Amino acid sequence: MAMKIRLARGGSKKRPFYRIVAADSRMPRDGRFIEKLGSYNPLLPKDSEDRVKMDVERIQYWLGQGAQPTDRIARMLEAAGVKEKSQRSNPKKGTPGKKATERAESKAAKAAAAAEEAAG
pTM here? Predict the structure, then answer.
């Protein structure tokens, strides 16, 4: 059974509240879970103690059993000092898309043509 430590959404519309749960990866996001491990309230200020509450011992138990944390949970665990910081690499994130590069090339060509016309 592939286990995940992930967020399950609760709360009403426009008022999110999340439970940190250990669940089978095949279950739906807000569906059946095995154990509640904490909570996350994104509406609270970032420096608030109540924003993220975790049962660190149980999380370490599930990580020892082979549960994989999602990206967001992994960041929370890194901030809490439970997990070592992993190297993230997204080399394509900063590069512009196809249309943006075409626009930049055409703009450069127009600028070069204008500079030639002014000089010549």
Answer: 0.69
Closest by CA to 8, choosing from 34, 31, 42, 26, is 31
CATH of the domain at 41: 3.30.1320.10
Task: Say what the pLDDT of residue 19 is.
Answer: 94
Going by the DSSP 8-state scheme, the letter that residue 114 receives in this structure is H
Q: Can you give 64-109 as a three-state secondary structure string? A: HCCCEECHHHHHHHHHHCCCCCCCCCCCCCCCCCHHHHHHHHHHHH
Cβ proximity of 54 and 30 under 8 Å: no
What DSSP character marks residue 96? -
| The total number of structural domains that make up the chain | 1
Residue 53: pLDDT band with limits 50, 70, 90 = very high
